[in-house]
Amino acid sequence: MLKELDLTRKLSKEEYAPIAEALGPRLTMLQQRIIQAKIPVIILFEGPSAAGKGAMVNSLILHFDARGFTVFNTQDPEPGDLRVPWLARFAKQMPAYGRMAIYDRSWYGGWFRRFGRKTGKGKYTRYFEEINTFERQLTDDGYLILKYFLYIDKKEQKKRFEKLKRVKSTSWRVNKADFKNLKFHKELMEISDQMLEATNTSYAPWRPVAATDKRYVRATVFSSIADELESALKIREEKPAQETDFAPQVKPCFHLLPHKTIEELDLTKAIAEEEYKERLKSLQKKLFKLQNKLYLAKIPVIIAYEGNDAAGKGGNIRRVASALDARGYSVTPIAAPTPDELSHQYLWRFWKALPRTGHFGIFDRTWYGRVLVERVEGFTPVSRINQAYNEINEFEYMLHRWGAVIFKFWLAIDQDEQLRRFEERENTPEKQWKITQEDWRNRDKWNLYTAAVNDMFRYTNTDFAPWTAIEAGDKRYARIKTLETMITAIEKRL
Amino acid sequence: MLKELDLTRKLSKEEYAPIAEALGPRLTMLQQRIIQAKIPVIILFEGPSAAGKGAMVNSLILHFDARGFTVFNTQDPEPGDLRVPWLARFAKQMPAYGRMAIYDRSWYGGWFRRFGRKTGKGKYTRYFEEINTFERQLTDDGYLILKYFLYIDKKEQKKRFEKLKRVKSTSWRVNKADFKNLKFHKELMEISDQMLEATNTSYAPWRPVAATDKRYVRATVFSSIADELESALKIREEKPAQETDFAPQVKPCFHLLPHKTIEELDLTKAIAEEEYKERLKSLQKKLFKLQNKLYLAKIPVIIAYEGNDAAGKGGNIRRVASALDARGYSVTPIAAPTPDELSHQYLWRFWKALPRTGHFGIFDRTWYGRVLVERVEGFTPVSRINQAYNEINEFEYMLHRWGAVIFKFWLAIDQDEQLRRFEERENTPEKQWKITQEDWRNRDKWNLYTAAVNDMFRYTNTDFAPWTAIEAGDKRYARIKTLETMITAIEKRL
């Protein structure tokens, strides 16, 4: 892509002045409309050293109200960043609806920092895939992603390095390595081209810009941004197609394993008190030992709990957690989303809560809320829920490739057992806090939930993150089965 | 304090069983009441290696609903933690109202990690002072802080190290340094005692516990926690004293400089267009150069903007920001607090937004909202606002000692000028978004705001973070004065 750039493009002061004069107010007004329309925008600048990325960000933000954007200047990852999936540090930064994030280097930065070191092409395939998935999920959620690659040739880069070096106050910004890297300019262009092509998608295309002339690059980038914001606003204003009732339309992108339906589960399975006590103790001891090994091997474990109301998730989690060292796990309770969470893509809060390598992350309800409560209650448009099955598989695949052992437990009880437990809760003082009107309302939608659960099994039962249905009519049986499932899989992994 | 502990205290299985049986459900019930009463709780455990802190956290949380607490296992700070005030990483973690934070090592951890290295006693005075201030501010805000120091003697510690070493799965948890440190056990006890005494306050007292016997320490700590939660609930239930209208009652804890009142400012000061253009350009150039020097010297700059509505904060900030490299500053806009912000102490969101060393942090409205809008609108009880003057000074003093250059600008216009600008905004399409009903309502309370501003000057004009009143009747004059103030102070500092 870079070869096609005409690096001699220039604008004279006279040509530039009227363009700049019109663009400034236009950008200012557009930002206000973007805020009102609640469109989240990501603008990122990549390119070789001294291509003018920083200066571009500096001049761009002068036209924006500071209350509406954040600038990120991406540096090398910190040690903590290396203990979570590599994209997590960027996913956590995604702007809220109506806000802008402006990047001076972004998730593509790693590619450049590695320039000059020996790196196999193949190694990056995975990163590019994950970037494309990440960007596609965001644009599907309404994010606008504008990617600019500022390019200068070797001669121009050398000239700029020398100018920086000459001025006392900027001389620290260039070092010997920069000058040494000049030799690899051609190679840099080649690997940049690979990157641009591998991540040049229809939903987030690259815009390479010849950056030799400051006025030219500024006029080009600013009018491109203005045009893109305008067209995003226009699309938003068009009436969306009428949404119909829910009917799953999922194009599976992963190999899906068959799974029993809720109706096929044998909920009468039980275990006697004596046997339970004995097995619980021995299983907990085993899990504790395994935690130690996982910690040393730096393998993270993700445990997702879903299930009917009153199916015993809390008690089950407690039996798992009490086997673990508190320094090595976290339980993340998932309640109704806060306003802050509602103004981000739904996976945002889970990206933030991922455990570090070697740690257990237990989720008490999960990202599956998207295809369960959000589907049943109609909180989310049908089309977005249909996309979610695949998005969730992609999210879990990323966790799997990161090295995580993933457990997804569905705790199942039948309607009669639920009624019995609800009533028991209402009649036991220390359990009353556990039962609300909401629970009774959910009960009325039993069949809708069951259909949603069966679809969830059908579309998200992957080989890298399979579901385990836990028959929870008897709490003791459920706990033993959960622990045994975990221990078997972890032992297999170690 | 540690010498008074009877390290031989033990509980037999028979003595312990009934106590434990009663304490479990009591803690469970109390946590639910704490959540309902929205009391934020911090429970922290310190003590020498192998004293049983981790095991204590493990057994404590079994009685709590995971949705109500977070466990922190404090490790050495990461590089990013070293570029903000040292307490910031803990302040950011403070639990929301009604939630618990449980610490296995906390902000006291540094003290222990330094054990065995040569450290002057005096060096810690500042840390202890800052800890005491931090804890006092939190307890004044309704936080309950429970601090337990688990203590074992040298013999016991050695025994535990050897046991850990013997078992394969735990052997990695002790190393040569641990055994070597055994020699310094007496010294450790002495420095621990210094720390305990220096931070043993009425609002957050230490509770040293003999930790030789697991049953004894558990029974002691658990019943102490239950008692404390209960008494906090009781205090909360008592009717608070009737709050009266606002009258500042401030005990200044810092040396305060005199400051002009709003009425004494000459708001007719102005500057001609030509002169303005010339001086602006040269001042911006100067500031850019200074930013470079500050960056290299790792000196952070905090700029707090306050002022009347329509006084020109936005345009002023833009003139400062456009002089700076975007990679070295952030503008934090302060709007009405989100629900998440409302359920934390008011400084929480500012702790999170502090710049890194060498960077500029520009705040478009600030922590002074506490003593301005919150006071005028009656959003916050009078007693808490009175405490805020001092809390803010303490917060700024911490920033000062961290090394920050602090600017506090009040942009002042008079009522006529404000009316003129409001009307201009309403009549200019690209400015209409800047004016809301809220602005007109605030205008009706002009005199109340003026009184609040004058008190703010009076009680927070410290020598380490002085106010600069910017006469902003003429925007050009205001911008030049702001830039000149900054440049003079930064040059003086460098």
Automatic annotation (TrEMBL), chains A, B:
It holds the Pfam family PPK2. Residues 11-234, 272-492 form the Polyphosphate kinase-2-related domain. One of its GO terms (molecular function) is polyphosphate:AMP phosphotransferase activity. InterPro entries: P-loop_NTPase (IPR027417), PolyP_AMP_Tfrase (IPR022489), PPK2-related (IPR022488). It comes from the Bacteria. Gene3D superfamilies: P-loop containing nucleotide triphosphate hydrolases (3.40.50.300). GO terms for biological process: polyphosphate metabolic process. SUPFAM superfamilies: P-loop containing nucleoside triphosphate hydrolases. This is Polyphosphate kinase-2-related domain-containing protein. It comes from Christensenella hongkongensis.
